[in-house]
Write a structure and sequence with these properties.
ABC transporter involved in vitamin B12 uptake, BtuC; globular; 4 strands; two-stranded antiparallel ribbon; disordered N terminus; mainly alpha
């Protein structure tokens, strides 16, 4: 069927440059339609939550210590979410990060490891979780990239396997961290701010630079946008996918260090369902589930929104079931908005 045109437009000649001006969006529309506009929406949502918390809970919520509590609560999930952002931007998924984090806490809190750390340096308890996370990510990456296994199934297998291995190693017992050097580091304050928040900030900044200012980040976005076209363009797709899953494992290992410091214990139950919270924060933050677009700033804001929401419900002694329903509604709305954006594109 031929395209229909307005009679007025068909009969009148266009003015010079009129079509270009009509097609070119204004600067405000370009800003609001880009990442800045999406992040502005998240900031507004966060501000609204803060206003609700202040009105309903009063000084208890508005206290500076409560704000630090919100960020400290968000820091562990936040670090995991940074790694998840890269995975989802590349068009993948990682369901194993929570279990890998739990396994890393168990290995790092073993008596033999703590004894070796006491005899040498507490930094050993920092390196071990990172090594465990990277090793798990390497296995995921090789199975997905070179074994051609769907990311969902490969990481689901790692989720089950890592959790089971953690239970076997620990005998399903909680292992207490006694290394004073490690505990002093993870419980320290720098300029009045807990070290866990500093770690979250450093990981977020490093993630932003890596995604937005490096070839690695551009290749990650390209692979998520069109894997085959990226391969034809000369990108070593398989090797890059392996590195992305190693990066996800690395952030899970860093989160394990933070969890050990916060709870002073290693257990196979650490990180239960954390992968779902991380995916939710990434999606709400604006990273496309189908890949091809990722935002670290949006992920950080998404994590803070869920952490603030939890704090508001806690301060007002509201039922956790209502909180879960609210989180579910937020996720559904975010996915619907993403689908609309993808369809429009």
């Amino acid at each position: 069927m031929s395209e229909q045109k307005s009679p007025i437009l068909a009969e009148s000649a266009p003015l010079p440059g009129a079509s270009q001006q009509a097609e070119r969006p204004s600067a405000v529309k370009r800003i609001l339609g880009g990442s800045a506009g999406r992040n502005l929406g998240l900031v507004i949502a966060l501000v609204v939550l803060f206003i609700i918390g202040t009105v309903t809970a009063g000084d208890r919520f508005a206290d500076i210590n409560n704000f630090l509590t919100i960020i400290r609560y968000a820091s562990i999930i936040g670090v995991i979410s940074i790694g998840m952002t890269f995975v989802i931007t590349a068009g993948g998924i990682d369901l194993s990060v929570g279990s890998v984090m739990g396994l890393a806490t168990v290995v790092a809190s073993l008596t033999a490891v703590q004894l070796a750390a006491t005899q040498s340096s507490w930094l050993l308890m920092v390196l071990i979780p990172i090594a465990v996370g990277c090793a798990a990510g390497l296995v995921n990456g090789i199975v997905i990239a070179y074994g051609n296994v769907v990311a969902f199934m490969a990481t689901l297998a790692m989720l089950v396997g890592a959790r089971g291995l953690a239970e076997l190693i620990s005998g399903r017992r909680t292992q207490i961290v006694t290394n004073t050097g490690f505990l002093d580091f993870t419980r320290a304050n720098l300029l009045g701010v807990p070290i866990l928040i500093w770690i979250f900030a450093i990981v977020a900044i490093a993630g932003w630079v890596l995604l937005n200012r490096t070839t690695f980040g551009r290749r990650t976005v390209a692979i998520g946008g069109n894997l085959e076209a990226s391969r034809l363009a000369g990108i070593k797709v398989k090797r890059h996918l392996v590195m992305i899953y190693v990066l996800s494992g690395l952030t899970a290992g860093i989160a394990a260090i933070m969890m050990l410091g916060r709870t002073t214990a290693g257990t196979s139950t650490h990180g239960l369902l954390y992968e779902l919270d991380a995916i939710a924060a990434v999606v709400v933050g604006g990273t496309l589930l189908i890949g091809g677009r990722g935002t670290i700033v949006g992920t950080v804001l998404g994590v803070l929104i869920f952490s603030t929401l939890t704090n508001v419900f806690t301060q007002n002694n509201l039922d956790t079931s209502v909180q879960q329903v609210t989180k579910g509604l937020i996720i559904v709305v975010a996915v619907l908005l993403q689908q609309r954006f993808a369809t429009r594109k």
